[in-house]
Design goal:
Layout lengths: L18 H18 L11 E3 L7 H9 L4 E3 L8 H4 L4 E2 L6 H14 L4 E6 L2 H13 L3 E7 L7 H11 L4 E4 L3 H13 L7 E6 L11 H4 L2 E5 L8 H8 L11
Parallel strand pairs: 1-2, 2-3, 4-5, 4-6, 6-7, 7-8
Helix pairs in contact: 4-5, 6-7
């Protein structure tokens, strides 16, 4: 694709089980390109887009630094905490950020005239980012429920919503397993209290709502698109994208 005139893109697949070992091996041709690029008329390496997860270690990163080869982070993970991005020299704008995921939620809340919301997520950084961005939109985050990757807290969390909350809107940025567990537990309590559930569905999880139709009827979902799911209209748009018509560069 001619996204950047004069720039050639290539790829190299690394063995995930031996990430840092293969990363060192892969570095050698990059180093040669970097040296060759010092001569007129030869290809010059201007950067390496690293899509590995977890990220390569500091030893491998130092090899690129020594040769002044920039690393650009563009992993398919859309929920990578900010502290993990600081390792790389650049953060590719094409990768959706956590804030990108959250913006539709604020629009939904405003459309429903809801000014208060709670969030359920699994890292404090996500919860803090959500609250900071919500404040900018004039929305108050009344509670931040940060839960480790476990369903042990599903029951107590559900009881908290039933017994101790007046905030109707609840945003879920979590796995489908907790979402499903939470809905089932609240339904089993036969509570008359209702909530406005908003959930961001990430990765390629399967969401099962059998027997939970009453919740699904009041559930609003935002989806994060992945490359393999892109439709033909977007592919056509992407293939015709040029620096001069790319609005994201403005």
């Amino acid at each position: 694709m001619n996204l950047i005139p004069g720039v050639r893109f290539a790829s190299k697949v690394l063995n995930g089980a031996k990430l840092n070992e293969t990363a060192v091996e892969t570095f050698e041709p990059f180093a040669e390109l970097s040296r060759n690029g010092l001569k007129d008329g030869e290809l010059k390496l201007i950067g390496v887009i690293q899509c590995t997860f977890p990220a390569i270690n500091e030893h491998v990163k130092k090899l690129y630094d020594d040769y002044k080869i920039p690393l650009i982070f563009s992993a398919p993970m859309v929920t990578v905490p900010e502290f993990e991005l600081s390792f790389d020299d650049y953060y590719a704008k094409a990768t959706p950020t956590v804030v990108t995921q959250m913006k539709p939620v604020y629009s939904i809340l405003k459309k429903l005239h809801l000014k208060d919301v709670q969030i359920i997520t699994y890292t404090h950084s996500f919860a803090d980012i959500f609250e900071n961005e919500a404040n900018k939109e004039g929305i108050t985050v009344t509670n931040k429920h940060v839960i480790e990757i476990s369903l042990d807290e599903c029951g107590p969390l559900a009881n908290t919503f039933i017994d101790n909350t007046t905030t109707k809107a609840i945003y879920i940025l979590y796995s489908p397993s907790l979402e499903n567990c939470l809905f089932k537990f609240i339904q089993s309590k036969n509570t008359t209290k209702t909530f406005q559930w908003i959930s961001t569905h990430v990765l390629d999880y399967k969401y099962e709502y059998k027997g939970l139709e009453s919740f699904v009827n009041n559930l609003i979902v935002t989806n994060i698109p992945f490359t393999e799911k892109l439709d033909q209209h977007f592919i056509k748009y992407l293939e015709n994208l040029r620096p001069e018509n790319n609005k994201r560069n403005e």
